[in-house]
Amino acid sequence: MNEEYDVIVLGTGLTECILSGIMSVNGKKVLHMDQNPYYGGESASITPLEDLYKRFKLPGQPPASMGRGRDWNVDLIPKFLMANGQLVKMLLYTEVTRYMDFKVIEGSFVYKGGGGIYKVPSTEAEALASSLMRLFEKRRFRKFLVYVANFDEKDPRSFEGVDPKKTSMRDVYKKFDLGQDVTDFTGHSLALYRTDDYLDQPCCDTINRIKLYSESLARYGKSPYLYPLYGLGELPQGFARLSAIYGGTYMLNKPIEEIIVQNGKVVGVKSEGEIARCKQLICDPSYVKDRVEKVGQGKYIAIVSTTVETKEPEKEIRPALELLEPIEQKFVSISDLFVPKDLGSESQIFISRAYDATTHFETTCDGIKGIYKRMTGCEFDFEEMKRKKNDIYGED
């Protein structure tokens, strides 16, 4: 292992595997190591079910009523892919889709306190049919969705008096006379914000988020979400294969003894007494505890997730748990949410953020693009990625 690499990657979470694949496609000599014996890190899929029981230290074996253990793939972090989102574009342009199969999630729903579960309306027809809103609200919401669909940042004629860089989203809602219930499910179920902070920020980002949801829904009709058939653990493995095709070297179950830094800059990684030298390092927070800070926790129970806000976090997801009854077994995990203390410009150590409580991978992709720019000095370009991929396959 006493070789020199352009980039060493520690950890096989989705962020690390995507960046490993991208750097390999860019012609970099990449060494990818993980102290775990499996792919995925925090975003792994656990199979068989017996391994999940062991991971959460549950006594005994899964009951026979749960079927064969190998029929289960349980994601440690539940997320979906937006059908028209950035991760799907990365998968398509790199042709990582050749290594996996996907299915469309059956529907997207919203829980309204005291009123049960409703299909999230995001098209004109669904808005008119939804029982979430009264008749006149439906008409106003329909006009709002038409406005969003026609909105184009490059065409001021589509603004209709709104300044996308200055007008707040609260004022846009007022423009269409949308009530509190409508704005709540629009902001949290279409734009997928976790807090109401967005209301007083410029409206451009929110409108684009709603457009992404609607355009993703339009691709397949049932919902805006896609999901790997055999679990999210397929995603990092797919990008690991991409890296290997371009010459990347992978080593699992490798204990990391030391990250070697000289004069404030990373120069290598020590494992089992050997040193692999590098110019840049990508890693998840677990490898550099002194370079990250804790800013919160995420709780993951089956497919129910939230950011911890109180001293009794399980109570925070009680409405969702009640909807899931009867529950045979709960697997409760609280993960610390780490973010890097610096951007890595001086040390050349680029640390990914822990996964947040969003339902999809858009924020993860933003983080990947941010690390890529800091490493290369260039914006991530989907088309350039596609051209480089085609070079090796000899495609037009």
Descriptors:
FAD/NAD(P)-binding domain, 7-stranded mixed sheet, 34% helix, GTPase activator activity
Protein described:
With about 400 residues, the chain is of the alpha/beta class. It has 13 helices and 17 strands. The chain has helices spanning about 15-25, 50-55, 85-95, 125-130, 135-150, 170-175, 180-190, 205-220, 235-245, 315, 320-325, 360-375, 380-395, and strands at about 5-10, 30-35, 45, 75, 80, 100-105, 110, 115-120, 225-230, 250, 260, 265-270, 275-285, 290-300, 305, 335-340, 350. Strands 1, 2, 10, 11, 12, 13 and 17 form a 7-stranded mixed sheet that branches. A hairpin with a 2-residue loop joins β11 (about 260) and β12 (about 265-270).
